[in-house]
Amino acid sequence: MAAAAPAAKKWRVDRSEGEETPDSAGLDLISGLPDAILGEIVSLLPTRDGARTQAVSRRWRPLWRSAPLNFAIDSRLSDQDRKRLIAFASTILADHPGPARRFSLCDFTLRHRYGKVDGWLRSDALSDLQELEFSYYIEPRVQWYPLPPSALRFAPTLRVVSLSSCHFPNEIAPSLRFPRLKQLTLYEVTISEDAFHGILSHCSALESLLLEGNSGISSLRLSSPTLRSFGFSSSSWNGYNATKLQEVVIEDAPCLERLLPLRPNSGPPTIRIIMAPKLEILGFLSNAISLLCLGKTKFQAIVLNIPWFLFQNMIAVNLTTTMRTVKSHQDKIMNSQKYDPLHPIECMELHLKTVVVRNYGGKWPDVNFAKFFVLNAKVLREMKFFARNICNEKWLANQHRRLQLKNKASQGARFIFKTAWGCDFILSHQAHDLSQSDPFGSSLCC
Q1: What are the residue boundaries of the F-box domain, all occurrences included (predicted)?
Q2: Is 157:129 a contact under the CB 8 Å cutoff?
């Protein structure tokens, strides 16, 4: 008979070396982590799940109360039961001693609960709050309820603020200071022009600003030493007579990298850029934006998503403006500007290396302006056309002939055609995502 198989080795954890052996497969290694790390894990969980970790084991029981509170009042807290939601919310705030990392109250039906919401916001559990997300579910939609002033008591500690579907209490704006705020979103908010400019002047660390669908601001004049990204739209859902954004003026923004009209078909009619030396991306423009003034700033790099007809309405006070990359979303196209070799544009002569054309139709108005770059961009390396047509051989041959590719100014330039449809807006979260080098990348092609 064959010798009996050797007994399976008993695996174990060698604690002296800190090495894991097969016997450790069933051990709870997560519970061995330091309290600080476990508390961070708990604070990132949804509110209900975070509270439930108390039942995992004796080791986990105190962690939820010691971790910064992540408090989101939403359907996951109560399984769509409104009365249970309110009861759970009150219980959690009573049980947790604070501090809080996040408070989120979105699309909450107010009715007769204004006092209840105000009481939640005054809870000691929300001390040192870092993130605030607040919106009402409006009934009827034309009536905006005021944001409880208690929501703004956290101004000294807030890092992220998102307010939606509410009326901002303008009378307390002069006293507000946001020394740590890095990200601000106002969506369908009514706020006075003076109140907004006052708040903005006291945001000394702001990096990203998003304004969409608000009312009360007609002329926005932006000066910020820290702002890197600014997304905006002038459309307003708060009544037909609401004051809409008509003008955006970038007066002094030394760190601004992105200027992003979110819904260009709604304007604003005027955009003026006076001083933004680091501006790299200037997104989606349309016939609703009738004037674009590029001040006296010498831009290092700009990405444009513009309908070609708008080019003749662009005013560049300094014609040495440098643009290394151009991206275009086309809309209604009219006659293009002709290039005058006696008055050369520096970016066309020395810098422009990449052009991306989205929503390209291939008809003569499209062709004429695209040809402007083909025949005049002397250091162009690559030009991509995302076309609305199926790029078959016959269509491509016709485009090559119309664009006069044989007469291209840059002999090393490549021309690439792909079938893809473009969208006419940038997703709001892309305006805030500073880690994304190209905010148009995932929104332009369907």
Answers
A1: 33-73
A2: yes
Beta carbons within 8 Å of 303's beta carbon, 6+ residues apart: 280, 281, 282, 283, 325, 326, 327, 438, 440
Q: What residues are paired with 70 via a beta bridge?
A: 102
Q: Which domain holds residue 378?
A: 322-333+342-422
The helix/strand/coil state of 247 is strand
Q: Which residues, other chains included, contact 278 with Cβ-Cβ below 8 Å and sequence gap of 6+?
A: 254, 255, 256, 257, 300
User: Are 31 and 60 in contact, with CB atoms under 8 Å apart?
Assistant: yes
Q: 385 in a domain, yes or no?
A: yes
| Residue 327 included in any domain | yes
pTM value?
Answer: 0.74
Residue 209 within any structural domain of the chain? no
Question: Could you give the 3-state DSSP secondary structure of residue 429?
Answer: helix
Q: Are the C-beta atoms of residues 215 and 245 closer than 8 Å to each other?
A: no
Domain tally, the chain? 1
Query: If you average pLDDT over residues 350-373, what whole number do you get?
Result: 82
Q: What is the pLDDT of residue 223?
A: 96
Per the CB < 8 A criterion, the answer to whether 107 and 75 are in contact is no
Q: Could you tell me how many residues make up the chain? A: 446
Element (H, E) at 364: helix 364-376
pLDDT > 80? residue 236: no
Would 398 be classed as within a structural domain? yes
Q: What is the DSSP letter of 232?
A: E
The confidence score (pLDDT) of residue 100 equals: 92
Band (pLDDT 50/70/90 cuts) for residue 238 is: low
Amino acid letter for position 360: Y
